[in-house]
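In the previous lecture we treated proteins in isolation. Real proteins rarely work alone, and many bind small molecules. This record shows how such a complex is specified: first the sequence, then the SMILES for flavin mononucleotide.
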Amino acid sequence: MNLKQVTSVWFSPTGQSRQAVEMIRAEIPGSGAFVDLTDWNVNRPDYGFIENEAVIVGVPVYGGRVPDVAVKRLKKLHGKDTPAVLAVTYGNRDYEDALLELKDILTEQGFRPVAGAAVSVEHNIAHFAEGRPDEKDREKIREFGRKAAEILEKTYSSHEIGELKVKGNHPYRPYGTFSVKLKAGSDCTGCGICVKNCPVQAISRTDPKVTDETCCIGCMRCVSLCPNHSRSMGTLMKLAVRQKLKKVCAERKEPEFFYETGK
Ligand SMILES: Cc1cc2nc3c(=O)[nH]c(=O)nc-3n(C[C@H](O)[C@H](O)[C@H](O)COP(=O)(O)O)c2cc1C
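The predicted 3D structure, ligand included, written as tokens:
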């Protein structure tokens, strides 16, 4: 397939999913563009793609699913049998139904998924699997990108693309009730970086110390960007989360890759 353009798309509050997309993208030839679905943008346009383009789409796993906010924003993408390469990143616990859900959303939106990756990285809340992806993971991700590029190259028309089978179940597991409450400490300088970057506008413009807990998705973006390390979930909550996840995150999970096998 002679690809006119390859567009990288991500919803990635703390940057791991974006990094995975960019690693895969580097192995796929073709001129590039990107769509960042993380930023709050009430006037976000719809994005249309044609057959001889491709998209690489990455999202994090929240509770074994695609985050609700990402689902809504992914529905702004419209393919016309456009090939898609998919990636979910997760914090070394499990990705359960997230890759399947991402595949279903993209298919519904008119794309043809050719390959999917589930990549275990450092957990952005509990910080298990510190330092991942490591070099071994990175090489596997690059190899995945090269294999996806090969499939795209040898496919003459997207109608030749067979079904992509990935891990996961229907019906998807229900969204969990576990929620992280993020707060500013007394040392908050009110610089507004968190306000500007919050994906869901949960932080007050007039007083960045105030977070709307009904709206906050606990994505950790404000914590990762705060120059003063003032934002956090609090020591007790941090300990409770680490305790809860200690067992299930302990064992190293290797990245998993899936490819369509043609018709
Ligand atoms: C609200 C929330 C829920 C999460 N749920 C899971 C999970 O179910 N399984 C898992 O292994 N990691 C989970 N994680 C960790 C993230 O999936 C992981 O850190 C991801 O790479 C973050 O992506 P990003 O850097 O693109 O935002 C969760 C993180 C958050 C903030």
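Summary for your notes: The helical segments are 16-25, 68-74, 98-108, 135-154, 193-197, 221-225, 235-250. The chain has two domains: 5-171+251-259, 183-232.
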